[in-house]
Fold these 4 entries.
Entry 1:
Amino acid sequence: MFRKFLTAAVAVSALLAGSAHAQDVKTAEALRDKALRDYLAWDITEDLTTNIGPRLVGSPNMEKAKDWAVAKFKALGFTNVRVEEFAKPSWTRGEESGWLMAPYAMNLNPVGLGRTQSTPAGGVEADVALFKTYNEMIAAPDGSLKGKIVVITQPMVRAQDGAGYGVAGISRRSGPVEAAKKGAVALLIRSISTSDSSVPHTGVTANGEGVVTIPAAAIGVPEAEQLERLAAAGKPLRIRLNLQSTFDPKDVAWNISSEIKGSEKPDEVIVIGGHLDSWDVGTGALDDATGVAITTAAAKLIGDLPKHPKRTIRVVMWGSEESGGSSEAYLAAHKDELPKIVLAGESDTGADRIYSLQLPAGAAEHPAMKAAVQTLTPLKIYLDRAPAAHGGADIGGLEASGVPVINLNQDASRYFDYHHTMDDTLNKVDPAQLAQNVAAWASFLYYVADSDIDFRALGATAPKAAH
């Protein structure tokens, strides 16, 4: 009798588990399909970019954005809305100009790199040392660039996964410091861009206590190519550059968060979001109003269900991604709950369609993740078997501390045409592709939130990659 009872109990348990799994699939598919018809992400993006505008750390607009985020979360019915302030020195752009003076006059229309040093008042004028690549500049003998304005014309390669950004971006990140070591007085770089536009791209460069650097700016692609042709023809080049800016070492920024509270395990948390700040030259639509909108809209769809999933979903609008600091601040504020953070993910590559999913190591064979992959397939999203890594700048601290991350990889083929420029505006957002992002996030998040999946345990037992 006991064996019969045990067999019956196991059968009932399996039936209930199967029934619960089937209900999860049905709910996730319904969320996916509803998201494809929903306009909330577009409305959020439009509201933020139109009514707040550029959101540089330390600017009045960034403080308005903080208040906007609080009001938005409350209006959408999220709970536990929190504003976490942290120290963050700010930088403010001032007057900028740049001219080719010889062999003829031409306006270079530069834009200063984020957090660059200023030139002397009135600017600096010097002969040019032009290099086609960053490595060519590095190879120049020490002292050989003394008194020169260095120009680096290295192009960026277009790629769906944005891989060209890291390669070309070193000119922006490290160029001013390395050129300074060789005696240069200023640096101009070809925009870290996949476009052919004259609109230059900004972006953060090295700065801070103990960093010896020089004034640095970006110029558009046609301008960089023109200088390269002139140099190839043997024409001596001379440039006048004026970059003015100010620093406030005692400023602050904020991470703003809210939650869809879990129904059974509310202390187990999934952390998602995008960054609220932007550069000052545009309205930060693709970078990263859409990331904020995608994750907020996905969580809102789940929050509107008759019953919340088991686990809590926390949406964070990080307050200083562009110039750094929000990841470290978030980790410091939440270090005590790290073991309870089940998973983290960030949307920060625009709004074009998601084409692949990367899971934490060992998770692909879990039933909930198999179901998630099946639900994502109609969205033309495939499972990339490589384990997720580098889930986002703002969750970098969590990831380094052992929190599992996911990558819902967006098509970045055109993202680097616009990001960090005055062209990063609402009209670059494709509403249909934006909705596809929300559909992917909402359905995937539901599976994780309503399951007992332990990504850490799965990762510990996953086969190690061969070396």
Entry 2:
Amino acid sequence: MARFGQAFKDRAVARLLPPESAAIDVVSREIGVSVDTLERWRAQALAQPTQQRTWTAAARFDAVLTTAAMDEATKSAWCREHGVYPQELAAWRQSATQALAEPAEARATPQQTKHDKHRIKERELRRKDKALAETAALLVLSRKLEAVFNKKGEADE
């Protein structure tokens, strides 16, 4: 017998309950759970207080869109009917606004990515050239130093 987590059950039941109200046989086929099990889960969820029910992201977004043009009295009536607090609805609206507020310019275009890769390669090449020049200079200096000390050593003997 398969065991499902509470989060899985909550998501399945949220699809069955308003505002989404998906058909039980469709949800059963999509998630691979029998219709009888889904009916039992739905009955248990309906027995709970309405505040404890979970809403899917799509259902929350639909609720925000539905109530966006309503005045306060109508919105409050809608909230009572659907078992949602107006504060929750405001939080969902804020969340949707933040999700949609990210500018498209924040994402790099393929041209910008290519340009950035080119800049990074140039910077690495300059750094490697400097390191190579420093190593060559040290090698030249060490040979000169060795030549100077060898001449003095030969002169002393």
Entry 3:
Amino acid sequence: MDKKIPLKVVGLSHSHTQSGAYALILEDTAGKRRLPIIIGNFEAQSIAIELEKMKPGRPLTHDVFFTVANTFDIQLQEVIIYNLVEGVFYAKLILDNGMKHEEIDARSSDAIALAVRFKCPIYASEFVVNQAGVSVEEEEHNEGDPAPETKRTEKDSLKKLSTKEIQKQIDKAIEEENYELASKLQKELDDRK
């Protein structure tokens, strides 16, 4: 495999190209290129929950995998997005239990959901980043982004709520499994600290 580029998760947003899907944004650690990956609602929620340190009432599938792996001393050492074929990203989980080292094929969205739980490195092959990566400067000039006024209005309406009101809304959103809203509300609380 060619050179591995280290990545970090920098965001999740609604996909502008596919209804009901999300764009997971990964960025190289140098901050020069981003890799957008379209993922499903469930995986987006799973990633958002872990990034925002929320606890759902019942464990999600990725949480169950994490618990089973830890119970049997299996470590996820790294995730590698190694190929891109006709718009589909291919990833591997690199697992180790001290006696055996295995590479297991996985969907990139599941691999990232696990990587954020195991707090392990995420990589993409140089080929994948060259094929699907977008320079940060290019992305900042993308006209498809919501207008700054829309972002500001949404943020201003949250600022009017008390910390207690926001916490109640977070609890309600989690109960209704609206993890995207819960994530936004949690970010507002974190910004206040």
Entry 4:
Amino acid sequence: MQRQYGQADDQHEGIEIQGLAAPVEVRRHPAARRLTLRVSPVRRTVILTMPDACDLDEAGTFVEKNLDWLHERLASLPQVMPFIDGGAVPVRGRMHRLCFVGAKRGSQIVWVEQLDGRGRRANGGARARRANERSCRLCVSGRVEHAPRRLRDWLVSEARADLQDRVSWHSRNLQLKPRRIAVRDQTTRWGSCSSSGVLSFSWRLILAPTLVLDYVAAHEVAHLQEMNHGPRFWDLVRMTMPRMEEAQRWLKRHGGDLHSYGAEEA
């Protein structure tokens, strides 16, 4: 089986394995005691972590021995849903059809239009209420090639606003005070809490139902008092978020799908 070695990016080495439809990014870690593999659902790449003393030939052999597992994991990734005109994206758990409208003088950058049963814009009253139960269109103005970035920026902004609101609520409820919040595209965690009190969240929480974002906000606020996952921590989360088990079940079942939105085709 053929292998090619090179740089995956400016920081990591890479291996290309014939027959594997994904690049392998090699990460050397001084604390690693053995070779490990995982598949990134966001970047749709294989991540191989190896001890410093391990060489690339040994790493390549390890990858080849686990090809069946890697093929299975890659095949199980959700279908890529790039931000394209006519595509779709959930916002707060509700699916929206994307419409890149081009340059429109005096319009907002991104806005939501309610649609009736025939796909026409609903403008208030009973018609709008009926449309609220059916479908929405998410419109993005400006040059079409800039629309995906504009849409992503808008989603990040919406996520930040919702997270600030729920973090503030849970902080008051538990009488805790975060230092600040940060919103990023975290790939392995939906949220995190630093020892300095900075709460970090994935912007993709705005794609999930509001209950889920609310739970993750409560989870990280509780870490301001309990930097662990012991009984006292879970008592705090449940105190401020009684429906936490419902949100946990949703994340376990559907969370991985959120990483497919806005991804690029390989």
